[in-house]
Specification:
The chain is an alpha+beta fold. It is built from 16 helices and 13 strands. It has 2 domains: about 5-55 and about 270-410, no CATH class; about 60-65 and about 90-260, no CATH class. Strands 3-4-9-6-8-7 form a 6-stranded mixed β-barrel.
Length: about 425
């Protein structure tokens, strides 16, 4: 073991109380950094999973048409005219959904495509009326682009599959209408009315979706909504959801339809989560910074109290670099000990938080804290602690290295 390390530890143990205060600060700072990042990134990841499981990674909507503007070749307006492209406009729905879906399936990153016909209407039961948005789907296709099978809370999808006039109703709507499985409700749209049987009840946890959305069979939707052809949109799932913007641009070129990726649709909420992660990281890092300042004070005091010992070491042949290493070793020991203790503390806090019951309904649905176990949180916390404490150790180490034995003996050391 290096003599510089041994001497540094002995100097440090001479200030046990101050050393323990700095060590505790680093431990708590690292631990709180880990748990806050695990919590914020966990909720962000759960939100993304919920959105992808309800609205898909991509949505293919209206056809894109180039707009033309005519211009005369002379000021009089007579003679021939020329036309040129001025912009784009979006027209109607997906007129040929089968062809567009086949083209989209050729992309290697596409996991599934579902044709959806939507329309507004009203649910009527026992004198109650609620506005809703009907989604006509082919069940097997839609299960391939959503988490609908996991979102069923009452009933079975097999009942919906067997019932031509079956409906998948949200838990929110079922509670508001006081309707249960197997009961009949009336759906009115486009001047028509149809009795539907509640086959199953689902819950996404996204309040804006659960308040209005219901699922019916595609054929039933075409009949009630008066849309015998086309589709309102195609919902697309991907193997790699992070590639959604790239795939969207390519699909626009291939299909000449507007394609929106989930990152653009949910940009506001994604920005909110990023700000929360950043603000929590900055706030918790202040604890580590304060601990670094405390470490600076401890080492500065040690330098002042150990000037004679430093002078003796220099007289014995220790170089300036050796003296610097003695104090840098002290900072490294505190950093390493505090980081390891902080990792354990952060792990235990995260584990406890993951098992803490909580009921959240709004932008997603969960009955417990959602945490993200990521090695990057531990490494980032360690890096922050290392930079702060070692920087705080550098200046006292530099001052100690500049002490000259003769100045110490004469009492003129700076």
């Amino acid at each position: 073991m290096s003599s510089n390390f041994t001497i540094g530890v002995r100097f440090l143990l001479a200030k046990r109380k101050s050393m323990l205060m700095s060590l505790a600060g680093i431990t708590f700072g690292v631990g709180f950094f880990i748990v806050t990042q695990a919590q914020t990134s966990g909720f962000e990841g759960f939100f993304v999973k919920t959105i992808l499981g309800t609205n898909g990674a991509l949505r293919v909507r209206e056809r894109i048409q180039d707009t033309l503007r005519s211009m005369s070749v002379d000021e009089s307006g007579e003679g021939f005219q020329i036309s040129h492209k001025e912009g784009k406009r979006y027209v109607g729905d997906v007129a040929q959904p089968e062809l567009v879906a086949d083209a989209i399936r050729q992309f290697g990153n596409v996991a599934g495509v579902s044709r959806v016909v939507t329309g507004s209407g009203q649910l009527v039961l026992r004198g109650q009326t609620r506005p809703v948005q009907a989604y006509g789907i082919l069940l097997d296709d839609h299960l391939g682009v959503s988490d609908l099978s996991e979102q069923i809370v009452f009933g079975e999808l097999s009942d919906f599959r067997r019932t031509a006039n079956g409906v998948l109703l949200s838990r929110y709507l079922a509670e508001r209408l006081d309707v249960g499985l197997g009961e009949k409700i009336v759906f009115r749209a486009a001047g028509k009315a149809r009795k539907l049987t509640v086959s199953a009840i689902y819950e996404t946890g996204v309040r804006d979706i659960d308040k209005v959305r219901l699922f019916i069979h595609l054929r039933t939707a075409r009949s009630i909504l008066g849309k015998p052809f086309g589709a309102s949109f195609l919902q697309v799932s991907l193997f790699d959801n992070d590639r959604a913007p790239h795939d969207a641009r390519r699909m626009i070129e291939v299909t000449s339809h507007h394609v929106s990726e989930w990152q653009r649709r949910e940009k506001v909420w994604l920005d909110v989560f990023k700000i929360l992660r950043l603000s929590s990281a900055i706030t918790v890092s202040v604890i580590i910074l304060i601990s670094g300042l405390g470490m600076f004070s401890v080492l500065a005091i040690i330098v002042m109290e150990k000037t004679r010992e430093i002078a003796i070491l220099r007289s014995m042949g220790y170089q300036r670099g050796d003296i610097s290493k003695i104090f840098l070793w002290q900072g490294f020991v505190i950093t390493l000990s505090g980081t390891l203790a902080g990792w354990i503390f952060g792990f235990l806090m995260t584990l406890g938080l993951a098992n803490l019951p909580i009921r959240i309904r709004g932008i997603f649905s969960t009955d417990r804290f959602v945490v993200n176990w990521s090695l990057s949180h531990y490494l980032t916390a360690a890096l922050i602690a290392f930079v702060v404490v070692m920087l705080a150790s550098y200046f006292p180490a530099r001052r100690a290295a500049r002490l000259e034995p003769a100045d110490v003996i004469r009492g003129t050391s700076a």
